[in-house]
Amino acid sequence: MATSAPSPALANLSSQITHLPHNTTQEDDELLKAVLGYLKKKNLRTTEAALRKEADIKDTDEVLHIDKMKEVLTSYKSRQQQEKAIVQYEALCNFVEKSLEMYRGELSLVIYPLFVQIYIELVLAGQLHLATDFYYKFKNRQEGREEDINELIRIKSKEGLQINSTFSHYRTSKYVVKMCKDSFNCLLSHLQDNLHVLLLNLINMHLFVDVFDGLPKQPSQLALSNSTILGDGKRSVNEQKMYYGVHHSSTRIQALLDPDEYEEEVEGALLGAGSSAPTDAKRKKKKEKTILATVRKGKTDMYAPLPQDPDTI
Q1: Quick count: other Cβ atoms within 10 Å of Cβ 138?
Q2: Alpha-carbon distance 52 to 35, whole Å?
């Protein structure tokens, strides 16, 4: 019976597996069995026999179940993507270090948030060993963030991320980066020219790049951007109207303007509507207060010039 030829992707995967070292891990063994299971399912006997011979696996060894096979192959593909993201991140760091000095400061603003996002992605994927290696490889590039990254390394699981008050915001809110148009074009050209799609996806999902016209930021402005949790503030934060002072209907203002009347209103509210009528003593006190205010208002200034008679002018 004729057998179909294996796909190029599967042939490439088989080639990588057969060149694994002899001290393979359990994950590598499961990957071998998953590929053998796939070859057997597709009736690719020649390729299966060649792989068994090269990897020194006997025909009596069991292959993985179809569901487990899919899980292992998906995990392998995911790990490849994660390792590729790390390679792209290292290339971005090298690009920023070699860029023009006038743009280097703004370009460096994306290094830290991407470092955090890649580490979190690795932890959520269960790749703790890979996440730890990534952390210690690039931790020295996070200038001014030593305290934050010391807290980041403590996150080892999804639950640990949820209870972390600092880095849980990185999954629910976007990190804001403000840079001039020229700096942004340099960043975009590097990512597109090198086909760094994984970094572009991370920036699109977890960063908000606010592009403005003009010159790049000054060192003092860059230091301010690096001192906040989620980067720069969005422009919309300054669009909401702010009112100063106390609202005119505030009871505190009423109490200051007319303490007696405010006291009557409070007493009436406590005693009930039927008992809120002012007493004769309070009416007399209020009348005296009104007269006193009128007298004070009409009192002339002793130092004011005397009015002139119109007839004498």
Answers
A1: 20
A2: 10
Phi, psi angle pair for 216, to nearest 5°: -60, 165
**What pLDDT, on the 0 to 100 scale, is given for residue 23?**
44
pLDDT, average across residues 15-44: 60
Average confidence (pLDDT) over 109-113: 94
pTM tops 0.85, yes or no: no
Task: Give the span between the Cα atoms of 259 and 245, in whole angstroms.
Answer: 20
Per the listing, tokens 């292992």 go with 72
* pLDDT per position as a tens digit, 126-181: 889 999 999 999 999 998 888 889 999 999 999 999 999 889 888 888 999 999 99
**Cβ burial, residue 191 (10 Å; 0-12/13-18/19+):** buried
pLDDT beyond 70 at 8 = no
How far is C-alpha 307 from the geometric centre of its chain's CA atoms? 73
